[in-house]
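[job 4471] stage=fold_predict status=RUNNING
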Amino acid sequence: MPLIKDGQLTANDWQHLEDDAPLSAGNISVSYTRWLAEQDQLLPRLKDGQLALRLNGNNPLEELSAETCAKFPMIALEFPAFVDGRCFSYARTLRDTYGYKGEIRAVGNFIRDQLYFLSRVGFNAYEFATEAEAQQAMQALDDFSVNYQLGSDGKPAVRQQLGNKNS
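[job 4471] inference complete, writing structure tokens
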């Protein structure tokens, strides 16, 4: 699947395994459920940097410690529908509360209009079904030139850009 990472089209070298699929070679992501059930078997892959975690809004992020999350080079947040915004909150929590520095990838049913806001809360990678969707989405990351609030992306807000003249 085509991937935008850190604002660039790039190769996607991760495979998302279903819970009942056998472990395969290379970089794999597993669901929260599979991680809980098979941690002992999966830990060697994690130590080699070949294991990523997939979460969705139904998974209790608060049950994962910041230390556990930091071990994963990538955490994929799955959107079951573009109207489900729980993963926005998960990304912000991972970046701002947990201090997560790895890749946070959006997968599933998000739309182009959400990309800029996904980047503001901490996502830095976006997986698409087609190359055409990825090409169109590249433009969405620059939809806005002014930010009214602080975000996890470190971009200044309007008040900061104006030098706090009205504060």
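[job 4471] summary: The beta strands are 3-5, 8-10, 14-16, 27-31, 51-56, 74-79, 103-108, 125-127.
[job 4471] exit 0
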